[in-house]
Amino acid sequence: MSNLLLKTEIEQLKEFRFSDRQFLSSLSSPMTELFEEEKIKLYLDNVGRRISVPDKRVAASMFMKRYGFFAVLNLFAMTVLNKRLNVSLSNISLETSDEEKIWYWNPKFYFSDLKAVPAPADSRDKWREETIHAIFHDHIHEVLMTITKHSGLSKKVLWENVAIYVYWLYESVLANPKYDDKRKIIQGDFEYLVKKAEGGLFGSIGFNPLSRNFGVKVYRPEYDQNIRTRKTCCLYYKTTSTEDRCKTCPLNCNIGDKSDESKNRRTS
Q1: What's the pTM value of the predicted model, to 2 decimals?
Q2: What domains, with CATH codes, occur in the chain?
Q3: 4 pairs with which residues across the strands?
Q4: Would you list the DSSP string of 106-135?
Q5: For a Cys staple, 2 with which of 74, 115, 208, 215, CB 3.0–4.6 Å?
Q6: Is the CB of residue 87 less than 8 Å from the CB of residue 134?
Q7: Are 16 and 69 spatial neighbours (Cβ–Cβ below 8 Å)?
Q8: H/E element holding 94?
C-alpha cells in the first residue's frame, strides 16, 4: 500500500534538499544518465569547475559528500514521517539551480513519483530493514561504486562521506526537543543503523559502513567540543586556498599550532 506525500511532509523534506522543481543546468541530471561513462566523467568535470578543485578525486569526494544528503533525506522520511519514498534510480534526478551563487554547490533531489509506503503498525522492523536496503543497497551503493570507478577514489572515503551525515542527522537534528514525541523511534532507528544492521543491507561490500566509521567522540579543546574524528580524509582542504580543514579531519594532528584560528574551522 502506498500514498502520496502530503504538502506538509514535502515542506519538511525540503530542509534536507528535497526539490519540488527541476532546473536547467549542466549540474542537473537524471541519476540513470550518470551511470553512462562519458556523462559521469563530464558531470564530475563540471563539479570540479564549479567548486575549483584540483583533480577528479577531490571532485568525486565533494560529489559524494553532497550526495550523502540523499541518505539524510530518506532516513528522515523513514524515522520522522514513517514513510519509505520511491528511491529507485529511475525516479531521482539531481538538481542544481545556477541562480544560487554559492561556491560550494548544494544540489537537490527531485522525485518524479511522490508515492510513499507507510510503515505498518504491526511489523515496522521488517519495513525498516526493507527501507534501509532500498536506500543504501539499491541506490547509494550503486552511485558510490560508479563514482569510485571513474575517479579512483577509495570506497572507504566515499562511504565515510555518507556516514558522517547520517550521524549528524540523528545526533544533532533529531536531538531537537520538537521531536521528543518520536524519541523512542529515533533512538531505535539510529541504534539499528550503527550497531545492528547487517552489511548486506548496504551493498556487496560485506560490512556495515555506518558501524565501521562510528568512532567515539573525544573532547577537542581548540573547538571546545566533543568531536568524532574521521578515519579518512575527505580532501575538503584541497578546495580552499587557505587549506582550511574540517573539524573532524584525521590530518588535524599534523597541522601544528592549533591556536591559529584561521585554520581548521570548517565543518563541511
Answers
A1: 0.91
A2: 3-214 (1.10.510), 215-268 (no CATH)
A3: 115
A4: --EEEES--EEEEPPSS-HHHHHHHHHHHH
A5: 115
A6: yes
A7: yes
A8: strand 92-95
